Amino acid sequence: MTSLDIFSINVQGMKNSVKQKEILHFCQVFRPSVLLLQETNINLSVDRPFFIQNYSLFSSNAIGNFSGLAIYIDNSFQVIFHKELIQARLQVLKFKFGENSAYILNCHMPHNNREALSLVGTLNSFIRQNVGENDFLLLGGDFNYVDNPYLDRETSTETRVTLSRRMGTVLSAFQMIDTFRFCHPTARSFTHVGYQSHRPRARLDRIYVNSFFTRFLTHSEIYPFVSDHSVVRSKFRLSQAFKSPL
Fold this sequence. Notes:
By secondary structure, the chain is an alpha+beta fold. It has helices spanning 17-30, 113-130, 161-173, 179-183, and strands at residues 3-10, 34-38, 55-60, 69-74, 79-86, 90-97, 100-108, 136-142, 153-154, 176-178, 192-193, 201-202, 205-210, 217-223, 231-237.
């Protein structure tokens, strides 16, 4: 397979039939290679799994409401392993893509700053210890902070400066690029609208890729969804097998 189409959605619960039908319709229309979900609110020890035809499911059980992760990957991809790094907050899937390995991390950043900074440390350690210089590395999810307060938020009073700086250091260390900002350098688009009367808006949901692979990025877009978060998409196309020279 020479293309990789990644979608990420904070679904705010997957137990109701409306969300499930929307996800099924979404997959029929777009046929994503990989679908990252946050806030599934599903714990497989007590809840029924939600399967999608022609996809393999890898989940990280919810801990109460507003948590839980899932990765759906097209069955045509060869999965090497799945690992839960932090329950309900951070998971990783390794699979074959072209002649190389690909890692995709699914993240739902905690609102608690101490927990968020701990997640950043776990993320940093995993990448440093496991991801090779020739590997395709993707990181997607709901990060609950913005990289650029001037472009990525409006009427929002977010103050997670320490988290933004710490995460920025990790992204820089591994040359991770925000795919939407790479394709749309000055665009003001948002993925979340708050419930407050002043309707704060922010681009909290993002997909990052290591810089070498931006040359294969064809587009990165934002679409509406039936929650207060939007869908984010990044598509990559390879004309031939690749080998990073890094």
